Every structure is written in structure tokens, then in C-alpha cells.
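Sat 14:20. Reprocessing the chain from the morning session after the first attempt stalled halfway. Input below, unchanged.
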Amino acid sequence: MNDLELQESLREIERQGLCRNLRLTEGPQSREITMNGQKVLNFCSNNYLGLADHPQLRLAAIRAIEAEGVGSGASRLVCGHMRAHQKLEARLAGFKGTPSALVFSTGYMANVGILASICERGDIIFSDRLNHASIVDGSLLSQAVFKRYPHKDMATLEEWLKSAGGFRRRLIVTDSVFSMDGDIAPLDQIVELAQRYDAMVMVDEAHAFGVLGQHGKGAVEHFHLEGKVDIQMGTLSKAAGVFGAYCCGSSELIQFLVNRARSFIYTTAMPPAIAAAATAAIDLLEREPQRRENLWKNSVYVRTELQRMGFSTLESQTPIIPLIVKDSQKAVEFSQRLLESGIFVQAIRPPTVPNNTARLRVTVMATHTKEDLDCLLGAIRTVGKHLCLI
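Finished this time. C-alpha cells:
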């Protein structure tokens, strides 16, 4: 594709109201950030517990730099496996209650690496239609038969499992919390079906880690399914406030991934400072349950008030609260008018979400004050009336 073709494609993206541009933010990712020189309240970060700028995480990173330097220098299998990685993996396995754990550099790399190595031709993968793009890409790379069942449709999933007896391996993969809708997968029903039809289960806990469950361990804890989910993947870049991802499971699974997951084998290891900060974040998750309690209180308040205004928030049950606008250009205008009012909420449009479901993706943090929340709600009410949405 040459430059003229690229220009025409960009013009078409613009005509559809789907053009995306980077916005520069300054300062740490907290409840308030600076954007283009203006201080705004931040309601679109995944920093759910407000740990991204926590002093203990900063200190852990600084100490790791002093002890092990900045870069890891190589892939983990060459000479990049450092003490900080070892400590983080041991901490993750202990926290999640699994025999072993493996750290990846990103959630995308984890999903692609796990799925493309665990499954191959002759296998079949069943995936919720609203699963993250990294699950889709990893499934396609595996070359297994790939079937996407309608969102949370257990009847269809069971029907497909019944007819999949001829495949060597059957895997059901699902997000635990869906990143654009904020609802929770029926993981208990998925595990029951997997046991009935001899299938493996993989769950992506990216938006559940630190959020769901009595101790913040995710949907597996939330549904009391410890020991019943084969592969637990998650990220350390959201509620944990740092960067990277993990896979928790049996010792055999982790050793297999070390030898077969290309996105682990062929990349430079995570910087030791990041691993050390992530370990400190898990410590805080356990020591400060009040953060999670405040997160849920804030989430319920915002979602309830938006529904009272007349907005659809779909089936959101979590700190991810979609405010459905439908029209992409109107969603962008809504976001821009909020920004002018000192509120940053990003517009989400196709292809990230299905056609005619453009939305504002409101995310709430534990560190938002009641005043912050009321400021958000007041601005949404004003702009929503101006755009004739309520």
C-alpha cells in the first residue's frame, strides 16, 4: 500500500467518524492527570486501585534498579532470567494458589503465546465472541478450528461441545470481565460444561485480577473454582498498576510454555524494576482490602446514577461502565465536550465494539472521591441533554 492509498484509507476512516489520535498526558496515572496543559479528572484508566503511582511500588522499582540495573539484557532463556522475575513468579503462584507461574511482557504476548502453543491442527477452540483481540489472534495462530459462540450463550456452547468429540483437544477460553462491556463471564457454568464434555478451560483475568473475589484473586476465586480452571492468564497493568502479564497453572503447563511459547522465548525479558514493582503491588492487594471495597462502592454509585439518568450501561457489573451512545461521531463529540468540562472519558468505536454500539467507556478508581464522581455525573447529564441523548 503506497502513500496515496494510505491517505485515501485515512480519509475514509475520518468520514466514518473512526479516526484515532494519540493524546499526550503528563504526570502519573492517577485520578487527576494533565492533558494538553489542562488538569482533568481521569475516568478512562484501568488503574482501578490507584496503585500506578503508589510510593511503595516506586521504591520497589528503584531498589531493583540499584540491585539489578535497568534492562534485562536478553530473553529469559538466554541470560535474562533475574532474581526479580523469580520472586514475582513465586509470589503470583502463591497468591493465585497454583503450583507454578510464568511472567510475560504483555497480556497480548501471553494470550498469543499460550493459545498458539497449547493448541494446534486437530484441536478446537471455543471462544466468547466478545473476548479480547489477543485471544482471537492467538487462536487463529494456533491453526486449531476456531469457533466464537454468542456472548455468554451457554446453550450454544454446549451444543457445539456435544458435536466436538472427534477433536483431539477441546479448549474453552473466555475473558472473566469483558473489557468494553464490564460484565462477568458465567465461569461456573463454563467449568461445568468443560467437565461434562472433557474440555480444558482458559480464563483471561486481565480486568478481574485485583478486582473480583474476596481477596482480589479474580473470577476463579469469585466463583470458588480454585483447582478447576486449567489455565489462568492475567495482566499486571490494570489493578496492579504496573506492566506485564502472567500465566498460572500446573508445573507441567508452565514448563511446556517455557519451551514452546514463542512470545516468551523470543523476546527480551521484562525489566527487573517492573517485576519488583509488580511483586510489591501484590503485597498491597493483600494488605489493603479497603481499596477494593472503595472501588466497588464508587462503581455501584456511578452505574446506578447513570441508569437513573436514562443511559444504557448494558449488563455492567464491574468498574467498567459503558455509556451507550450508538453513533460513533456523537460518541466522539460527547467525549470532547466532557474534556472541555475537565472530564476525560474516551469514546470507544467500531471495530473495538460492534457496529451501532459506540460508547463512552467510563472506568472508576478506588481513589476517586465523592466530589470527583459527582463532577463526572453532572457533566454527563449536561452534555447528554445537549446531545439529546437523555
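The radius of gyration is 21 Å.
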